[in-house]
Amino acid sequence: MKKRLLLPPKYPDGQERQPYPVKLMQHQETAHELAQKINYIVATYPATAMMLREIAQLVGVATDADCCCLVTVTDEESTQTTANWCSDEFLGMPLPDEMFSTERFLMELPVLQCAVEPRNIDEISIIRNSLAIGCQHLPLPIKAVLAIPTRFGGKNNGVIALIKFEAHDWHESEKHILKAVETSCAIAFSQVQQAQLISSQQQYLQKSNQHQSLIKQLTILSRSNLELNQMLQLAIASTAECLQADRGLLILLKYTDPLFRTPVKKQVPQAKADVVSEWRRDKTTQTESISSSFSLSDCGLCQKVFLDAGKPVIINDYTDLQDNTSAAPLFAIKELPAVLLMPLENQGKILGFLVLQQSVARNWQQAELNLVEMVCAQVSNAIIQSKTLRQVQTLVDDRTAKLQSSLELQSRLHEKMRQHVDQLRELNQLKDEFMSNISDRLRYPLTNMMMSIKNLRLPGIPPERQVKYLEILENECAKEINLINDLLTLQKLESEQEPPQVENIDLNTRIKNLSTSLTKKLAGKGLSIKLDIPKEPLKLQTELESFDRILQELLNNAYTYSERDTIIHLHASHQVDQLVDQVMIKVTNIGRGISEEEATYIFDRFRRGRGGRWTPGTGLGLALVKSLVQHLNGAIAVESNPIPNSQLSEICFTLTLPQFSDESTPYSDSD
Description:
Number of helices: 15
Structural class: alpha+beta
Strand order of the largest sheet: 8-7-6-11-10-9
CATH architecture of the largest domain: 2-Layer Sandwich
Strand content: 15-25%
Helix content: 40-55%
Shape: flat
Radius of gyration: 39 Å
Largest sheet: 6 strands, antiparallel
Distance between the termini: 103 Å
């Protein structure tokens, strides 16, 4: 079959015209199809360098380039991703004998053109830097380059470069193709960068989980019945292994100068250092405690801790030190030149050192230093606790020997001990309830937030689901914030005695507004609220914010512990008791009764009645009410009256608040 020759068309003037519009239309169709193929790759391929290589091949083939180079643009060169494609005739060619430096490569580049003109200096710099990174290992010297930077989210995120190994004049059609695929490639670059970011965050979370697991393991060890040396051996082994050190040491000091109790700055004490625990990576089993020791005066490395006021000593490579600092032979500095020496400190006294060593230079991250510091704090506490327990045990033995001289005294002490044990059991039970309660209050919102975040990261979720998950996040965050605010408010009320910010308030309006806001919530449980307030305006001079919170907590408490399908009564009145002008508010509900014992601690923080242990709550509401009432110089009391022929009781909380000013009366119309 013969090939048809497409001749240029002739026009009425007899002159020939080149068919540029036809060519441009063909290139537009080619560029559109190319962009669709790239979009398909972006949608179906994993966001890796392999996806970029597939895109580079499509662009390189479509433009008939010798090579196509795709490079992501980030703030750090170490995180940039490069993908190259070369034509088949250049595949397998050996690399040039002389590798060009970046400066020489950029200087000797003969032709560098941009697909979109003009470009600013920053974008030209981005293109050159990307070429220097992505084209260092091409088989032949570059003779011509056509490049375009991509933008995503208003920022440059990558560069597409077409390369020729021979001199070449770039055509408008090739520039048009690059412009057409710029957006699709920008999306591909963005997906690769996002995948790298997620991967780095996952690595960070994995490392954080390892660190948290280490702290939890050390906490369990500190509470165990293991002997001190066994616990120290497990602690240094776990720490060194978690931080991937080659060797770990725990060194304890014995001061020979009894007067050296409070360290003096720039002064090194006389002390003997004993290595009590060691761990090495190159051994299959952990080594037992060793008895290596040295004098502190013979080790300049350890002396640095005292000379630098207890700060850790970090040496990336000991052989690079210029001050000729001496080190004890047991450190084996020549074999393990990278050293981290963290002091074991308690109340300003250095008990010893935790040492981590590496065979190669290492730059410790701040998170790792913080972890080692926490480990040192726990080890220091364990050492002090062990010494204290030994002293306490000795003291108890001496006391027991003396108590045996008198049976009567022994009996009395036994009774006191029994009472003490009962109190400890009760406190331990309260502690368990508190830990269970507060952990649930913290864990459940965090769990819901984590699940919402994971669901939001799922690809392709509809907008309405996104809105739902965002609402869950907002609600759970609000719960956590309210819990923390309640704790901070209690702490502030106990520590700071600031006078109330008094203002005139209309109790009738405040009570009606609060009751109205709870109507829908009460209806969900079949409850209703009945108000018994004076017809005339009931005025009170007090702190508005504190009063609203007190009444809100009392109504929430009544809602929580009321029997279904009952009525909550709220009664407000004015009275003068012993020449004291005050307002009395009673909140009454029907529910499980409160015993006399429970009434003694029901206003304590984290203490809840037995009837409310299976009801969600933090145990802070009534404690906050009591603190706020005391802040307003008022009083709060509770009564529980059994209902005849019923297992329920009528519970009444009585709130009494005084007027802060003698000039205004509670029935004054002025606000």
